[in-house]
Amino acid sequence: MLSCDGVRFNVALAFFDSLILKMKFLDWYLKIGVASALVGASMEFFMVKTGFYDKVTVLESEKRAWENSPEAQAVREALNPWRHVDTKESNKS
Q1: CB 70, CB 78: distance < 8 Å
Q2: Three-state DSSP state, 69
Q3: pTM of the entire predicted model
Q4: What would the pLDDT profile of 69-86 be if each residue is shown by its tens digit?
Q5: Which among 35, 59, 57, 61 has a CA at the least distance from the CA of 48?
Q6: Alpha carbon distance 85, 75 (integer Å)
Q7: Around 23, how many Cα atoms within 13 Å sit in the side-chain half-sphere?
Q8: Residue 90 neighbours by CB under 8 Å, 6+ apart
Q9: Which of 24, 38, 57, 72 counts the highest number of beta carbons within 10 A?
Q10: Is 27 exposed, middle or buried (0-12, 13-18, 19+ CB in 10 A)?
Q11: Under 8 Å CB-to-CB from 14, ≥6 apart: which residues?
């Protein structure tokens, strides 16, 4: 019975040692977390103030409108290197 308690004591001691080691570096993790949050917030603030999101929204809508146009479909079909293989397979079936 004494050896069982000794084992439990050693396991508990090892757990608390690792906990103390983790607490030792906790301040570094907090500093890195705060610094990262500040950098991210400043980047978002800059993008909002410069109108970045408005410009990107307009560009994306123009891109999607062009991709759905008949001209874009014709370009995609003309640049498809497998267009001849696709037409042969569709003719067979």
Answers
A1: no
A2: coil
A3: 0.47
A4: 999 888 888 888 777 776
A5: 57
A6: 17
A7: 6
A8: none
A9: 72
A10: exposed
A11: none
